[in-house]
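Re: the multi-chain job from yesterday

Posting the exact lines I submitted so nobody has to dig through the queue logs.
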Amino acid sequence: MKRIYFDHAATTPVKKEVLEKMLPYFSEIYGNANSQHMFGRDAVKAVDEARDTVARIINAKPSEIYFTSGGTEADNWALRGAAHALRGKGKHLIISSVEHPAMIATAKQLEKDGFDVTYLEVDKDALVHPETLKKAIRDDTIFIGVMTANNEVGTIQPVKELCEIAHERKILFFTDAVQAAGVLKLDVKELGVDMMSFSGHKFYGPKGVGVLYIKGGTRVDPILTGGHQERMKRGGTTNVPGVVGLAEALRLADEKREENAAYVASLRDRFIRGVEERIPEVKLNGHRTKRLPANADFSFRYIEGESILFHLDLAGIAVSSGSACSSGSLEPSHVLLAMGIPEETAHGSIRFTFGPDNTEEEVDYAVNVLADTVKKLRAMSPLFKVQEGEKQYV
Amino acid sequence: MYNEKVMKVFENPKNVGEVENYDAIGTVGNATCGDIMQITLKIDGDVITDAKFKTFGCAAAIATSSTATEMIKGKTLDEALKITNKQVVEELEGLPPQKLHCSVLAEEAIKAAIEDYKNKKGA
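And the result, structure tokens for all chains:
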């Protein structure tokens, strides 16, 4: 059976060129980047080059790039590290209600430590409105975090505008750009952000390596304490092959950024058109135009997401579900609920994320399979009552 | 996460739909939690002669609905009432722990349908 991968927001394969660039750093140039001898110096050289590349692409200084174990660590570090560094100034933190769990769970833990957290409301398309942020800011607000683009529904936030509001009140602004890196143009000077996170495996780099950009002069405590790595800010032996791979992957993604985005968006639009034409009672989640080029997230009314996912899986199509049932909790996606989508509709949501290796044929095949699957599952749903030959829904 | 048996039953479930002129109906669960199971029965004397289901839910919910309706066909009401969620799970050769509540739903749907029948008969 042909296997089709429509889950590029979950992870992407490591590009061959990236892997080749990484391979020497496992067994040949294996030195610890913290060692002073020649083995260490060879490793440092590679890490420095990687840092320069990343800095150049996001328009930062190399000294502002910190390598981490991935997006989750970078998010944890930004939020927890800033909260602890600035607790003398205030105890109020603001994040959007549609942040990645790496942010939400960290914020919940900080609440237990005595911080107050405001989870910013979003509109029906998951957008954070500047007015909402203005109203939420207090005199003791020390941190504002809003993601660049949402991982579930693909909505792109007005980061620059939100950041300006934060800076008017002299509040630190962080953006989680895990879904945006390698896809959108990310210029930290243009955006104005104080911190930004991203993760290698989302743009055809390796898993287990990420970046936190910290603007010079920004106060943030380390959360991984240990050795002298990363200018005393992040302990732990540097993952040399990982950072080499991340930098190369980001460089390649940046080189073809516009071309890839245009192609992937054409697949996404073909898919959205196909689904909306063929399948009644569906809802595209997220903003129709302010959305990531790769993302199409749909709710299929009257049926449950996990059953859709497995029918597609049986047909060779890999997607992701916002359904509670896949996680074992009874709560559907916090993102969909924050957008005001009713729980029963949220349960029937599937995320399709395309990549440059996908084709129009794959998209058309998926629309066909999806139309059959939805029909089949609706026929067995007690919520769906359709008269033979006419469109009549409960 | 699911074993082959569960996936096979999920892919081609039996007894989908509503029994025509059913004698009993039981609906349990709610859409908020992502699980609704409806079982309809045809009953002759005290024997279940036909059983069908409609389910809004995950793969495990659909597989347990199919299996539970298969298990009660031809059984007397008392025999059907004795079917436990554990037996449904055994018939499916196991479910992941977080999906066990789906099998409870199947047991409850059978009980609700039989109760509906007894209430109608009593009335």
